[in-house]
Amino acid sequence: MKLPFFNESLNAFLAVAAERSFSAAAKKLGVTQSAVTKAVARLEKELEVELFDRGCRPVMLTEEAMLLLKDVLACQHTLENTAEFMQSRSNLKPVYRIGVIEGLSKSLMPQLIKALQSEASEIVTQIGTSLVLVEKLVRNELDFAFTSAAYDEVRGLYRTKLFEEESIVLMPKAMAAKRDSWTWSQLQLCGIPFLHFAREGGVGRINDAYLSLQNIKTPNRIEVDSTGIMTSLIAQGMGWTVGSPLTLVQNFDLIDEIAAIPTPPPGLQRSLFLVCRDDRSEESRRKFIRLAQEMMNAHVVPLFDEVKRRVGC
């Protein structure tokens, strides 16, 4: 067998040294005996030594040939190990470190992990607020993060908008029964606390900016960083909030215990983003984005539509 690392002369030399015959070497290499003879002769000319005693049968290696053979075989072994290592590296399955906001942890992540399982050597997931996830991306502790804010002011990140939804007001059913519609002034005076999403999260940040811009004050407030706690408090009549249909997707078991109304004018939209470092290869980035979009459309959007149908928003 010809070795891709060596030229024709070295391959011929190795074959003759192994077979101790020019004709057998030619057969082994799949070439003519004349080609082997000429190749060995060229090598001898370049080295200015004789490598074989052709007067013996089988042919014998000279002392110079023995030295050359030792070094060539060592080189061959090293090159084969290097080639094997390079091939194994090219076949290594990647590790995926994925961060996700709580609002997508149930509806998206199980299906995404299932889709990645066959091509990943390891999958690590972390749930956190959008800000925490973005900070981990910057520190290279995550590869991808699903966030509810773009954080455009943070450099070195690549952002893809996956989804956009209208915010809604979530309130206890008993509170919703008091009026057919609500204004911001009426909500501020409703008598129960405003449940505020943690400021470190994208939703909390967006809500803060929106309420401040509209000069809407909610002095009586409770701050939480979990949609599970948030929806549970609302279901128990302990507060109201500005959320989204995805808040209920994550907590579908409470959907019949919570009322939802459109956000009073002006409306508020929220977007979901897939964020990664901008030094990531374009190929791996596109591949993951495409998969994430497929999983969103197949598993999250149908639940989103069902929630909207159930709550009438």
UniProtKB/TrEMBL annotation:
Belongs to the LysR transcriptional regulatory family. Keywords: DNA-binding, Transcription, Transcription regulation. InterPro entries: LysR_HTH_N, LysR_subst-bd, WH-like_DNA-bd_sf, WH_DNA-bd_sf. This is HTH lysR-type domain-containing protein. Residues 1-62 form the HTH lysR-type domain. Transmembrane segments: none annotated. GO terms for molecular function: DNA-binding transcription factor activity; transcription cis-regulatory region binding. PANTHER family: HTH-TYPE TRANSCRIPTIONAL REGULATOR, HTH-TYPE TRANSCRIPTIONAL REGULATOR GLTR. It comes from the Bacteria.
